[in-house]
Design a protein that fits this description.
The protein has 458 residues and is of the alpha/beta class. It has 16 helices and 15 strands. Helix 4 runs antiparallel to helix 13 (329-344), helix 14 packs parallel to helix 16 and helix 15 (402-412) packs across helix 16 (434-457). The chain is globular. It binds pyridoxal-5'-phosphate (PLP). Pyridoxal-5'-phosphate (PLP) binds next to helix 6.
Length: 458
């Protein structure tokens, strides 16, 4: 068969789709396959020419909008200069520039950067960094990683072992040993049956007890997303991360922030570490960092940790971790151009302002429909939790889940957002205007109304 035979119009036929694995259940997905053909600003067009408003930045990636000329021009220049440098023998000027820019912009003394291409690669690198750091600094028994239920840190075996989502873990078990989980700060459904603030943030203070019970000499790191995503935009109480910070300091345990989603301006500051005023020991970021123009992720660690890997070669072999495409010039050129866009156009400020517009829109919907139990998030990462009964917080049946009904209606109405059985989220490009956000909310309004109408008929 000639490649020419696979024309655009054929790319949605089942016989062609059978040759590709996608993230969805494929037989189900292929009934109404979403195959995007082009994009501009905050819009996508699929291969049938249908337009979608992108209230999700692809998947929290397209921070500076689709078809951003500044980034594309920077990539053209880089393509004409250097596309690949030998990773086993050195690096390239663009990677050094981006590392220095990130060191300057990151909070505190987060200042040494390891570049990779995806989120899982850097969360896994952070786990390895923590274990190697303790080995080099006289605590070789520290290897356990504490993370949270409902979390997502990626699909590689280490990052998956740290993740707390049974729907993605169970099929892959047994996973790596040395990982344990604690409850996340789901205040709307407190796992301890308490209420903020009289709870005294038990979900955070318990971490100290867990480390004690495990034996502090065996615990290497605690890894959390500042705002949990997969549990339904778990926005912690203001004190939460600061308490984790104190506990980690007390036990010589590294605090790792997974900012794969929350980094690059999404929560209204370049990093959620600033939004919450807590500096971790290691910060991982990806997605919006390159805006989707090339695969890029970064793991940043504090200077004293990096120093432990600097000493004479007779004492340590450096940070033993690497992938072929790490710090490649194309990805780093995208990262530099995206950061310039974010800084020069004050897209963090825009994320804060438009985040308020999203929130106000969600609040209007909550007044109109009785099925929105909670609204959570910061900046342009905002979610809603659906309930059948607001007073009792009773949920709709999990399968297919009301959130999925709404999300599928939204797709039909030309709106791309993140949906799950019990929640739905917006994470639009940081360049979005108030008018565009209002249009996104209006499409969600329509989709919610239709999903409820269907429910009433059923
Ligand atoms: C919070 C978080 N961490 C890590 C990852 C893994 O990133 P990737 O899919 O690029 O490996 C994701 C992906 O969605 C994520 O949301």
């Amino acid at each position: 068969m000639s490649v020419d035979l696979i024309s655009e119009s054929q790319s949605t036929e089942e016989r062609f789709l059978r040759h590709i694995f996608v993230r969805d259940q494929m037989a189900e997905w292929s009934k109404q396959p979403l195959v995007m053909a082009k994009a501009d600003g905050v819009h996508y067009w699929d291969v049938n020419g249908k337009r979608y408003l992108d209230a999700l930045s692809g998947i929290y990636v397209v921070s500076v909008g689709h078809n951003n000329r500044r980034v594309i021009d920077a990539l053209h220049r880089q393509l004409n200069t250097l596309c690949f440098s030998p990773p086993m023998h050195g690096t390239n000027p663009v990677a050094v520039q981006l590392a220095n820019l990130l060191a300057e912009l990151a909070p505190g003394d987060l200042s040494a950067v390891k570049f990779q291409c995806g989120g899982a690669e850097v969360t896994e690198a952070a786990i390895k960094l923590a274990r190697q750091y303790h080995k080099f600094t006289g605590s070789p028994g520290k290897y356990k990683i504490v993370s949270r239920y409902l979390s997502w840190h990626g699909s590689t075996l280490g990052s998956l072992s740290a993740s707390g989502l049974k729907s993605r873990k169970t099929v892959n078990e047994p996973l790596a040993p040395g990982f344990l989980h604690v409850f996340p700060p789901t205040c709307y459904r407190c796992p301890f049956g308490k209420e903020y603030p009289s709870c005294e943030i038990t979900c955070a203070t318990l971490l100290g007890d867990v480390i004690e019970m495990e034996d502090p000499d065996t615990v290497a790191a605690v890894m959390v997303e500042p705002i949990g995503h997969t549990g339904g935009i778990i926005d912690p109480p203001p004190e939460y991360l600061a308490i984790l910070r104190k506990i980690c300091d007390r036990y010589n345990v590294l605090l790792i922030f997974d900012e794969i989603i929350t980094g690059a301006g999404r929560t209204g500051h370049l990093f959620a570490a600033e939004t919450f005023g807590v500096v971790p020991d290691v910060l991982c970021t990806a997605k919006g960092l390159s805006g989707g123009y090339a695969p890029l992720s970064a793991m940043m660690c504090r200077a004293p940790i990096a120093d432990a890997f600097w000493g004479p070669i007779s004492e340590n072999p450096g940070f033993v971790e690497g992938h072929t495409f790490e710090g490649n010039p194309i990805s780093c050129a995208a990262g530099l151009a995206v950061l310039r866009e974010i800084l020069e156009r004050d897209l963090c400020g825009n994320a804060r302002r438009q985040g308020e517009v999203v929130r106000a829109g969600f609040q209007r919907l909550a007044e109109k429909y009785g099925v929105i139990g909670d609204i959570r998030g910061k900046g342009l990462l905002q979610g809603i939790e659906f309930v059948r009964d607001r007073k009792t917080k009773e949920r709709f049946p999990a399968s297919p889940g009301f959130g999925v009904r709404v999300g599928k209606r939204a797709l039909q109405n030309g709106l791309l957002c993140r949906f799950d059985p019990h929640w739905l989220a917006f994470g639009p490009p940081l360049v979005s205007t108030a008018e565009q956000i209002d249009e996104m909310v209006a499409l969600l309004d329509r989709s919610l109304g239709e999903a409820l109408g269907k429910l009433a008929v059923a």
